[in-house]
Design goal:
Aminopeptidase, globular
Amino acid sequence: MIKIRLYQPSDRQRVFKIAADTAFFGDEVEHFMEDRSLFCDAFCAYYTDLEPHHAWVAEEDSTVVGYLLGCVDTAQQHKVIRKHILPGLIKRIAMGKYQIGRLTLHYGYGLFMAAIYQKNVSADIARYPAHFHLNIASVNRHRGIGKSLLEVFLDQISHEGVKGVHLKTTSENKAACALYEKFHFNIIDKKTTSLWRYWLHRDIENRCYGLMLNLPKEL
C-alpha cells in the first residue's frame, strides 16, 4: 500500500537515486551527464537540505518510490542558488570532485546557449511564486502516485496562503503534462528548444505550466 508522507532526512539517498534514474525523460541521467552526484547536488539538494518541509515522498514497504520537491518562494531560492549553491558547485568542480566528461560538457554548453538565446521558459513569480519537481520510480508509474503527491502539496501550500504555483517540463513528458492539465494547470510559456537534439535527433518544446491558488472571492 502506498503511503504519502513528508520527506525525512533519511530519504535523501533514495530521493536522489530516483531523481538520477528518471532525469532523462524517465530514464537514467547518464544519458547526458557522467556523474549523477553532480546532477543531484545541482538540481535536488536545495529542496532536501534547505526546504524539506515542502518535500513529500510516496512510500511502499518502507521504500520511497516517488517524491515531490517543492519551493514556495522561487525568488528567494534563486538568491540562495546564486550565492551559495552555484559557488559551491563551481568549487567542487574545480577541485575535481565530479566526473566531467563529453556528455556533461555538451549538456552544459546547451544550457548556456539556451540562456543566451532566451530559449528557457519562465513564470511570472509574482503571480506563481511556488514551484515543484515530481518524479516516480519507473516500475511504480501509472499507479496514481503522482496525483496523490500533487494533491497533498497543493493542499499544503494553499493552506499556507501561496497564491500560485508553476512547474517546468517538456512536450516529451506526455503523462506528466496530462496529469498537470487534469489539475487545471495552464501552459503559461512554451518555446522550442534544440538542447536535446544531440540525444533525441530533433527539437522538442519546453513548457511552463501555472496554476493560481487562493483566488480572492468575488464580493
